[in-house]
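Dear colleagues,

As part of the handover before I leave the project, I'm documenting each prediction I ran so the next person doesn't have to rerun anything. This entry is a single chain, and its sequence is reproduced below.
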Amino acid sequence: MSEIQNKVVIITGASSGLGEATAKRLAASGAKLMLAARREDRLKDLVGAIAKSGGTATYQVTDVADRAQVEALAKETLSTYSQIDVLINNAGLMPLSPLDQVKVEEWDRMIDVNIKGVLYGIAAVLPIMRQQKSGHIINLSSVAGHKVFAGSAVYCATKYAVRAISEGLRLESNGEIRSTNISPGAVATELANTITDKDTAAGINQLYEIAIDADAIARAIGYAIEQPSDVDVNEIIIRPTRQEL
C-alpha cells in the first residue's frame, strides 16, 4: 500500500496550477484532501472531479493572508478527518517588477501571501502535528529562492524566506515533523498572470515558452510524501531541461 493512502493533506492554492495538479495526483493515490483557495467555483469543480474519479476531497474557501481563515481551515480539516498529516503551502503570487517601479502594494501582497501565508499555515497545523507526534510540511519556494534575478527582487526575497523557514522547521523538528522545500523553475501555471509591468511580463512570457507541466511538480510532491516516516526529503529543485537559470 502506498504511504500516501489515507493521509490527510491540506493544499493551499488548490484552485489551479500546481495545487490542482497535486490534488488530482494525491487523490488518485488515496489521500484524503482538504483543498483551500479563494475561488470557490474552482474548488467546487475540483472536488467534484475528484469525487467522480473515486477520490476523497472537500474544500474550504481561504485567503492565506488572513490568519483567522487559515486557523479555521486547520480546524475544519481536523473536524472532518480527525487528523492532519501533510500541509502543502502552495499558495503564492509573482507580480514581478523592477524596484524603481515602486509597486509597493504588490510588494505587500507578495509578503502577505508568500511569507505570512506560509507561516500562518505552519502556525495552524504545527500544534496538531506535535500532539500527533508526526506530520509533514511541504513549502513551495522557487528557483528564485536560490538566485536573484533583475526585476524579481521582492519575489526572490519571499522565496528565499520560504527556504529559510523550511530549514528552520527541519532543525526544530525533534524527529517528528518532516520538512520539504520544493523549488520549481518555469512551470505552466497562472503565476505569471499577476505581472503588471509590461517589460517584465514580456521577458517572463518568453522564458515560459519552455515551461513544463504542473504535474511534474505534483509528482515530486508525491515522491516526498510517499517516503517511509524515517526519510525526510528536504530539498528538491525542478527545472525544464532547457532552463539555464
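The chain is about 45% helix and 15% strand. The two ends are 38 Å apart (CA to CA).

All the best with the project,
I.
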